[in-house]
Design brief:
CATH superfamily of the largest domain: Periplasmic binding protein-like II
CATH architecture of the largest domain: 3-Layer(aba) Sandwich
CATH topology of the largest domain: D-Maltodextrin-Binding Protein, domain 2
Oligomer: single chain
Order of helices and strands: EHEEHEHEEHEHEHEHEEHH
Shape: elongated
Structural class: alpha/beta
Distance between the termini: 37 Å
Helix content: 25-40%
Largest sheet: 6 strands, mixed
Strand order of the largest sheet: 2-3-1-4-11-5
Number of domains: 2
Radius of gyration: 20 Å
Strand content: 25-35%
Length: 223
């Protein structure tokens, strides 16, 4: 007999590159999604797994942390960029999964960056999907950052005169170069973390704690 749907733990997984990188780790610890998970024509977002007590949901990277923070999912995977941006007190991130490596960086047009001096401006305009990280970073240097929130195509902002600076994730720098930008400051290195809902860890310690341990063993074996 399968466990009632409402009794199952839910794990929130981010779409995109991180999902591709995390799936081998999930399979290493015995989590195999139902066939519909791999079906490109499926519009479903919640899936059962080979573990009777665990379902997985597939969501946007920022939303994975939100689902866990508010208890809709008890477990999840999120980059520490997302955790830094939202700083949810309800999230506990016990384990670096060693995947999704990149960095949060400040970039600007190459011709202007050659004259960049972060000691001179007292105010700058920045396009980013990380307004909180951006404000904190520049505030620590005594600079007021006016943040323009964009969710994509951030590299276009300097090219079209919206601003001179952007703050975004950088992996290889290829997209920056293709759009005439260069990295001028690294804010933080990024990798993906196992995250859990703190109240769920207290109320279901054996189940949630058991998954933390299984992930910990798998990461140690991989390394």
């Amino acid at each position: 007999m399968t466990r009632a749907t409402e009794d199952r733990l839910i794990m929130a997984l981010p779409n995109g590159r991180i999902l591709t990188e995390v799936m081998p780790l999930l399979r290493r610890i015995g989590i195999e999604p139902e066939p519909a998970f791999e079906d490109p024509d499926s519009r479903r977002l919640r899936f059962s797994t080979s573990e009777p007590g665990l379902d997985i949901i597939r969501v946007r990277s920022f939303d994975a942390a939100t689902f866990v923070a508010f208890g809709a999912a008890q477990l999840g995977v999120a980059g520490n960029d997302v955790l830094m941006e939202f700083n949810y007190s309800e999230i506990y991130a016990p384990l670096d999964l060693g995947i999704g490596h990149c960095r949060i960086a400040v970039a600007a047009p190459a011709d202007w960056a050659a004259r960049y001096d972060d000691r001179r401006p007292s105010h700058i305009r920045v396009a980013t999907k990380y307004p909180e990280i951006t404000r904190r970073h520049f505030a620590a240097r005594g600079i007021q950052a006016e943040c323009i929130k964009l969710n994509g195509a951030i590299e276009l902002a300097p090219c079209l005169g919206l601003c001179r600076h952007i703050v975004d994730l950088v992996q290889t720098g290829t997209t920056l170069k293709a759009n005439g930008l260069v990295e001028i400051e690294r804010i933080a290195d990024v990798s993906s973390r196992l995250i859990v809902n703190r109240p769920a860890l207290k109320t279901r310690p054996e189940e949630v704690g058991g998954w933390i341990e299984r992930f910990r063993v798998a990461v140690e074996e991989k390394n």
